[in-house]
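ok trying again, last paste got cut off:
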Amino acid sequence: MKTVKTLNPEMVKAEVARFWEILRSKRGEALASLYAPECSVFGSTSRRPEPGRLAAARRSREYCGSKTEMRVETGLIDIVMLSPTAAAASYNFQLHASKVAHEGREEEHVVDGRCSQVFAFDEQGDLKIFHEHMSIPS
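nice, full thing came through this time. structure:
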């Protein structure tokens, strides 16, 4: 019989911290592995959702260059338990990056970013992102 893992708010907060640490440390393959295959992502500049692995590949291209420097801070993380195995995290973030490969701009400064991520265990029992929405107030 398969053992079902139970999720708790501290596990979700740790996974949010791991997400940003992986991005900040420019580990593109590890970033892609955080997303479930069926994940959908609304990026801060997206007009429509894209698959999580595609979003991770785009972020890797933009932020994982050898000369890119990045600072990230997250605010208070609010966790809503959706079930014993799934939860939604919502929080504000700041991101400051230089030497990014992003359509004509070399620097990016997000002061009031907002992020919502839905985490759940996949069939192998690994905690994954199943949905993500980032936005920046206009």
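cool. Residues 9-24 form the longest helix (16 residues). The mean pLDDT is 89.
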